[in-house]
Amino acid sequence: MSTATPLRLSAEGITKTYGAFAALSDVAFELRAGEVMALLGENGAGKSTIVKILSGLVTADTGTLTIDGETVTITGVASSQAAGIAVVQQEYSTVRTMTVAENLFLGQRSAPWLWRPGRLVARSREILARVGLQDLDPRTRVEELSVAEMQLLEIARVLARDARIIIFDEPTAALSDAEIVRVLEAARRLASEGRSIVYVTHRLGEVFEIADRVTIFRNGRSSPPLEVADLDVDGVVARMIGRELGDLYPPRSSSMGEVALEARGLLAPGFRAPVDLQVRRGEILGITGQLGSGTAELVEALASIRPVIDGSLHIGGRQVQLRNRRAGIAAGIAYCSADRKRDGIFAGASIRQNLSSPWLSAVSRAGFIRTGPEADATKTLAGEFAVDTNRLGTKVGSLSGGNQQKVAVGKWSGIHPDVLLVEEPTRGVDVGARADMYATLRALAESGMAIVVSSSDTNEVLGLSDTVATFYHGRPTAVRPATEWTEHDLVREVMHREEILA
């Protein structure tokens, strides 16, 4: 990106405080026309605050904003949109029971005053084609779309407002590798039209694929933008966390115990073939595949959330019948879902209350919680999961994504399960917290626990796991030691590229 390219956005002296806490301190930020600027930093570094200020959700205490040479004042969402700024959110804002066309113009000032379906469909086709959805019928209900199509629809809704500055806030967090490609292509296409893109992500690989420059936030302060061509992953990480990260993944297990979990001919709704699987004590089994491949269905069946139609499940050599989640917990199976905000944490409760929630009976007597033993046990547990033991009274909803994930996983360690099932363990988690999570999962495995990690991140699966199992279209396709896989082979396996090219 040439320095001669005019500035689209310039922010100077942006400050935002909450009481004694400075979320942003004298931040400077710039964005050129037609540029993709990656916005990076650990959770709590300040990048979310600057995004909220630009989108009108938060008002800065001090500072100036200039867009295309004119000073603007953003005091709310309406003024942000009027300034030509739009946000593609990680969490979808569409109405699932309405059609694609209806969602495109819902709440848009550009929507025609007379709601004529034929005219809406025609205008929708033009906008959808610009994000790679030219084959999608605008009359389709949103609830029928794939996850990737819903994310692209979020981008298309932004285009309906004709925004000049588009902020992508973790747009690929819930997508598989193949679906990420479609979102990146859409972002590139928008930049080629002269729009300016702010791209927020924890997936550093995407930065080197799509971004022209990088702005890194740390401790509420911004660094001058850097050219992506002059950086590598290690350099970015060191600037984000203020130190060299070292090895992201801990060493694999050198020894494993007896079989802790075994599935024999397991069949559940969503499977197209029975599943045979073994996980030993001390082992981390990584399972991966595209959305709809069967990995989510398998984990739910093992967790006794999805009913088992046929086959058997054995824990420690003993066959168990898992009719509901309570039975799964009693059998020694802990489960952390991919959606921590929905069913992984109690956002309004404290860290202490969250950590003790699965094992309250152990610190209760006659229906009353013994606060002393609860406090002692949760303090120990928090220390094991690198959670600040001085903040046990803090509401979990106010924590960073990384700390929320630590609490979501850590609470289950208190029941001392034989098997721990974890879906997407680092979704929305910064690189420093990822390293902590990987070290914690490995430590749990070394203590004798059997761990099943389901992840759409192939690097994560390869780096963390002892054994990797792949799934495709509702059936298992391969199970091999992680050392026998390359990333190329793994991606091809889960996508069955040879079938696509046939």
Task: Draw up the topology in text.
Elements: E1 7-18, E2 21-32, E3 36-40, H1 47-55, E4 62-67, E5 70-72, H2 77-82, E6 85-88, H3 100-105, H4 117-129, H5 147-159, E7 165-169, H6 177-192, E8 196-200, H7 204-210, E9 213-218, E10 221-222, E11 226-227, H8 233-241, E12 259-267, E13 275-280, E14 284-288, H9 295-302, E15 310-315, E16 318-320, H10 325-330, E17 333-336, H11 340-343, H12 351-356, E18 364-365, E19 368-369, H13 371-384, H14 401-413, E20 419-423, H15 431-446, E21 450-454, H16 458-464, E22 467-472, E23 475-481, H17 487-495, H18 497-501
Parallel strand pairs: 3-8, 3-9, 6-7, 7-8, 14-21, 14-22, 17-20, 20-21
Antiparallel strand pairs: 1-2, 1-4, 4-5, 9-10, 9-11, 12-13, 12-15, 15-16, 18-19, 22-23
Helix pairs in contact: 5-6, 14-15
Kindly describe this structure:
This protein is an alpha/beta fold and 502 residues long. It folds into three domains: 7-247, 3-Layer(aba) Sandwich (Rossmann fold), CATH 3.40.50.300; 250-332 and 417-501, Rossmann fold; 345-415, no CATH class. The protein is built from 18 helices and 23 strands. The strands form five sheets. Strands 3, 6, 7, 8, 9, 10 and 11 form a seven-stranded mixed beta sheet that branches. Strands 17-20-21-14-22-23 form a six-stranded mixed beta sheet, with helices on both faces. It starts with 6 loop residues before the first strand and ends with a helix. GO terms for molecular function: ATP binding; ATP hydrolysis activity. Keywords: ATP-binding, Nucleotide-binding, Repeat, Transport. InterPro entries: AAA+_ATPase, ABC_carbohydrate_import_ATPase, ABC_transporter-like_ATP-bd, ABC_transporter-like_CS, P-loop_NTPase.
